[in-house]
Amino acid sequence: MRFLRRSDDSPASASVDTDEAEGTQEKKPLDPRWTQGKGRPTPKRRDAETKRRGPAPPPPKTQREAARLAKANRPSKDERRAQAAERRARMDAGDDRVLLPRDRGPVKAYIRDVVDSRPHLMGLFMPLAVVVLISVLLPIPAVQQYLSLFSLVVLFVMVVEGVTLGMRVTKQARAKFPNEQISGLGTGWYAFTRASQIRKLRVPKPRIQRGAQV
Per-residue pLDDT tens for 139-150? Predict the structure, then answer.
């Protein structure tokens, strides 16, 4: 019995059984969808979405049509207000992506920190302009004379302070960033305009307190 079982399990019998199974499978027809390829590359997702949305609308032919199309695609008033508020908040925080080109970069941020770390007489420039306006409008000659003299003295002090501040800030910025090309005139003017503004109205907002070491 063992010899018979071995003969049945021999490779020859296994090959015969395999051939019969393959012959049986060859007789069974196959689905052409599984045997044949698509014959074309799989479309990209962007192309598929474009095809689903349909063709792009034709461009406007007249200026009136262009204006009508721009008005239709314009965001609403609430959306514009929200975008403006978000942009303003990011500018106050000092985000370089929304700041003006004159305020971008680590050098300008350092100059702002140096200016914001100390109080300056130049911060009274706008109130001084109001005083000058009052001195012009008052019909009292003596008061006009004193106010005009006071305004000239304060303005002279502001100019001197602005020059010294520009020189000091330029020196510190060059020592802080030795690999940067820092212009003395541009740095001094930037520091002067920053210091001449009221602290609460400065953009970006001061990120350090007065008296802090920079």
Answer: 888 888 888 888
